[in-house]
Amino acid sequence: MTVSAALNPMPGTLYVVATPIGNLDDITARALRVLRDVALIAAEDTRHSARLLQHFGIATPLAACHEHNERDHGGRFLARLQAGEDVALISDAGTPLISDPGFHLVRQARAAGIRVVPVPGPCALIAALSAAGLPSDRFVFEGFLPAKAAGRLARLEQLKEEPRTLIFYEAPHRLLECLGDLERTMGVDRLAVLARELTKTFETFRSLPLGELRAWVAEDSNQQRGECVLLVAGWQPPPEEAVSAAALRVLDLLLKEVPLKRAAALAAEITGVRKNLLYQAALERQG
Ligand code: SAM
């Protein structure tokens, strides 16, 4: 046991604190209390977070915890935690770890037996989903798509038959390209929602089929600025084709003469209707 652990048998707590995504009024009372009370704040960008803390009159020291140093320097924060000090983790905006650094630190802290406590609050994907008007009972958060077209198209190909609502983060300068690739893979008619500048002065929600949404963004360069979340309606299987009365008549005649499987195959050849559909119809007709 180290000297500090002997003096301070209770390790500190790592608080994972959400901060505003635009509107500073969205910070929670609990977040402010925790940020005031901890010994140290681990921040993605200390200069950016210094402005936030200054706005709220918080003087807690800041230390950098960004994606380049998180894995190696996590030990620095762990040592403070193990010595009994509380540490808060914040990112530049919204909830840490959600397309932001923090995962390695949280994992290391948990592995070291340190209590990790979330202090929930703003998160762009949840804010967008809560007001987009797309099904929200099940959804998939894909974060940022690959920046290069080939990787992006490959990922979208894998997602095109995903039935849950899809949520993407996108950088404004790639929005048009991304909409073009979504249109190409998911089709012009798939409903999508662009949620821009959430909680800010120019907050915009636009819900249109992908083809129209891409054209709308292409025509208005203002829509290609600021921060945005893209939501795409999940894939819906095409409605079952109805088997025509004429095809069923052919099927019925064949069912009297040959076994069910053969009847469905022959009826498919004669009528051009899919064999599976006729097979199902034959099963139903024979109870
Ligand atoms: N951790 C953040 C969260 O909880 O949402 C996300 C950080 S990620 C680096 C930044 C991306 O989140 C932006 O590129 C954008 O896609 C989305 N985002 C953040 N703030 C936003 C806002 N006010 N309006 C729309 N999208 C936002």
From TrEMBL:
- The membrane spanning regions, by residue number, are none
List residues of the Tetrapyrrole methylase domain.
Answer: 13-213
Q: What is this protein called?
A: Ribosomal RNA small subunit methyltransferase I
Q: Which family does it belong to?
A: Belongs to the methyltransferase superfamily. RsmI family.
Q: Which gene encodes it?
A: rsmI
Domain spans labelled RsmI HTH: 241-285
State the Pfam families in the record.
Answer: RsmI_C, TP_methylase
Its recorded reaction(s) are: cytidine(1402) in 16S rRNA + S-adenosyl-L-methionine = 2'-O-methylcytidine(1402) in 16S rRNA + S-adenosyl-L-homocysteine + H(+)
Species in which this protein is naturally found: Azotobacter beijerinckii
- Purpose: Catalyzes the 2'-O-methylation of the ribose of cytidine 1402 (C1402) in 16S rRNA.
Q: Where in the cell is it found?
A: Cytoplasm
Q: Which domain of life is it from?
A: Bacteria
What Enzyme Commission number does this protein have?
Answer: 2.1.1.198
Instruction: Name the Gene Ontology molecular function terms of this record.
Output: rRNA (cytosine-2'-O-)-methyltransferase activity
UniProt keyword list: Cytoplasm, Methyltransferase, rRNA processing, S-adenosyl-L-methionine, Transferase
- One GO cellular component, as annotated: cytoplasm
- What Gene3D superfamilies does this protein's entry cite? Cobalt-precorrin-4 Transmethylase, Domain 1, Methyltransferase, Cobalt-precorrin-4 Transmethylase, Domain 2
